[in-house]
Amino acid sequence: MIILDKKFSICIPEAADEIYKKFGVYRGTATPHCHHVCKNGEKAFSRFFYVVSGTLIFNRGTDNCVCVQSGDIAYLPNNISYVSDWVGEDTGSYIALHFLLDEFYVKLPPYICVAAHDKDSIYLELFKRMYAIWQQGKPGYELETLENFFDFIHILYLDYMSIQLKEKYSKIYKGILYLENNYTKDISVPFLADLCYLSESTFRRLFYDYKKMPPITYRNYLRIKKAYTLIKTGEYTVTEAAEAVNIPDLCYFNRLFKKYYKVSPSKIAVTNQG
């Protein structure tokens, strides 16, 4: 058997212009009443626009008007037309994050909107950190900025889900979030009900309205869904996956797995060996 001495390598292309066209973090100021027109096709990248100070209005006087105030993060998709105006008598300031997510499984809206209201300056610190990393330009700064960018996307997603749950299921959203973030633990329904200051029967009824299944059934579904992902990687045996999601009883695990995926976990494991 011939073993080729092929060593791993990693590099960042020197085509800086191409990188800057798709990704970057920039900071700036805007004079009072600053007016800007962007035509479709001018911006090949999307943007998150953190307004540090001032008020920025997009498409003023139209049905698509969006007002972005200090502490707000505006989302601007790529390849759209818009008009923006900084209003008021004070100088505006912002941090802009340019990006493209074409290669990733993240869907964002096709229109301008406010992505988040930064009440505790958590997002501001992230934007400042990304800007500092980008400006310093140390070796690997592009990857470090991307790391922080996906931290931002992750936090944004969690905040979005929390807001959606609060709006639709205000009485039980604390229990839902706890269950979805701790499903491998042995959580009882009375515990979840206490988190929401509800009786167990009321919590069960409201939860069924949410997921069309009882809380423990949903917990088991989340466990099996995670186990399926682990087995699909080819890095986990069925036994290891079952233990990882806190279902050590293999007979019970197999039964639940077949219930949700209509196939035994061993068949999934065989398919993904290698």
Brief write-up:
By secondary structure, the chain is of the alpha+beta class. It folds into two domains: 22-164, Jelly Rolls (Sandwich); 173-271, Orthogonal Bundle (Arc Repressor Mutant, subunit A), CATH 1.10.10.
Give the count of helical stretches: 10
Helix percentage: 40-55%
CATH superfamily of the largest domain: Regulatory protein AraC
CATH architecture annotation name of the largest domain: Sandwich
In total, the number of strands is 9
List segments where confidence is low: pLDDT < 50 over at least 5 consecutive residues.
Answer: none
CATH top level assignment of the largest domain:
Mainly Beta
How much β-strand is present in the residues? 15-25%
What shape does the CA trace take? globular
Would you tell me which CATH topology of the largest domain applies? Jelly Rolls
Counted up, domains total: 2
User: In terms of structural class, how would the helical and strand content be classed?
Assistant: alpha+beta
Radius of gyration: 24 Å
Mean pLDDT value: 88
Q: Largest sheet, described in full?
A: 5 strands, antiparallel
| Strand numbers in spatial order across the main sheet | 1-8-3-6-9
